[in-house]
Amino acid sequence: MSLMTVKEVAAYLDIQEGRVERLERESLLVAKGKDVDGNPLFDNSDVERYKQLAERLGGL
Length: 60
Description:
50% of the residues lie in helices and 13% in strands. By secondary structure, it is an alpha+beta fold. The protein has a single domain (3-57), classed as Multidrug-efflux Transporter Regulator, Chain: A, Domain 2 (Orthogonal Bundle), CATH 1.10.1660.10. This is Helix-turn-helix domain-containing protein.
């Protein structure tokens, strides 16, 4: 399992960091932990699955 920061997820999904944080708050993208500053960290396989689902549903 490789963890991604909010910034890395935003770059991968090509969306703003605030949107990644909102997805986490709404439990649409579940964080696997927190970094030392309390920011969420996401499993890269979960992010990939979310991207695939979003594309099937019409895009991000």
